[in-house]
Amino acid sequence: MNAPTPLSRPPLHIKMHAADNVAIIANDGGLPAGTALPGGPVLVEHVPQAHKVALEDIPAGGVVRRYDVPIGYAVRPIAAGSWVHEKLLQMPEARSLEGLPIATVRPPALEPLTGYTFEGYRNADGSVGTRNILAITQTVQCVAGVTDFAVQRIKAELLPRFPNVDDVVALEHGYGCGVAIDAPDAIIPIRTLRNISLNPNFGGEVMVVSLGCEKLQPERLLPPGSIPLRDERTLEEAPLDVVCLQDEAHVGFMSMVESIMRQAQGHLARLNARRRETVPASELVVGVQCGGSDAFSGVTANPAVGFCTDLLVRAGATVMFSEVTEVRDGIDQLTARASTPEVAQAMIREMAWYDAYLNQGRVDRSANTTPGNKKGGLSNIVEKAMGSIVKSGSAPISGVVSPGEKARQKGLLYAATPASDFICGTLQLAAGMNLHVFTTGRGTPYGLAEVPVIKVATRSDLARRWHDLMDVNAGRIADGEATIESLGWEMFQLMLEVASGRHKTWAERWKLANQLVLFNPAPVT
User: Residues with Cβ < 8 Å from 355, sequence gap 6 or more?
Assistant: First the structure.
């Protein structure tokens, strides 16, 4: 028997909790007025796919409940069978950071998951890379054009001679000068770039291109002792490898380019001598993130990632979830899951810092929900937060990573980052991420040159249309063709294949990569 086409599927609505009074419509294209929902009301108007339908009459001022959480209050009566969208909802006040549950949830200990391995690159500092990349750090945006020109030549002329090196990337950013370099918060972009330069996928081969006159001097970016040594040399014997474009030895543009290429050869030779070796799955450092979210994000992709997160934690790996403004409205859930009161307080401090940062710029938290999010059925940030948090699974939160800092422990970590896709990805790179998982419902051609990105579609329609951009179709869960658990296991196995270099993600195949974006709360001068 042939499987039903999307247009012939019976009406399907998804209710997240028994106490909810709304559900989302799962059918491609939505459902027209007059459609009778199985066990539910008859639609009184067309409801688009992923958007909410009222399952019962909701009076003016009544609670609209999804995930068993009030996501808003009806601004006027809403009849059963009606389309429930953002214009009908008044958003709840933000949860206070006072009086939160602190480390109150004690889930049963997860059974260790042993015997799973991947083929990775062991580094001198004990970390493990999933790729073998030469990264060229830049101290300032002024050198970006010269560095990019040199990198293109390195790829064309040098890289073919070093077949064990996966790629050469320039760590381009917009920082380094024209900023208040001594402002207290300037440490955030500085340590971010420093720790990205030391990401496990770069094998400890640190090379820097400097202009010469910038505020962020190389020695400030990477002071002595910040780079792990590969051998028994002292720091005096292993100085920072810097190409300074303003050096008098450089006469003309091509002299600068050739200097960068000459210095790159030594790094390429050492990287080329490295070989993959079998390492336990505990060496994975996975960043999880969502972007271009829709109402399916919290139904299909993010719950499957959450199940996979639990598998990774059981295997001893590190998993980071992030995006302050996307989880802020669920802070009570997070502090309750903290492994210790100290971890809970650290999360509260990060949320309070970001609240103050937004208030300083007079930014309302409701601004987080984009036009695309709303078109995808997410009415406000409260609803979005509930779907975002489920990426973290059910394990206790064992630590907090501040912006730009390096993760220094295993387990489930909260990495405090803005919700912007590329700032979040940049900060997770700084934390030591060697594999990235990105879920999307609306679709975004997100990619990072520095780390493999596994893209997960929340809907089958998106997976079909973007068939050569999405690595996993979580829409099969809504279609009844997979379960959260089965897809979670599938992603776990895929991660091991991608980490081993046996499988390339679509972003890698197309070489999709966006510029790094440093989070810079310090003032510009």
Answer: 97, 328
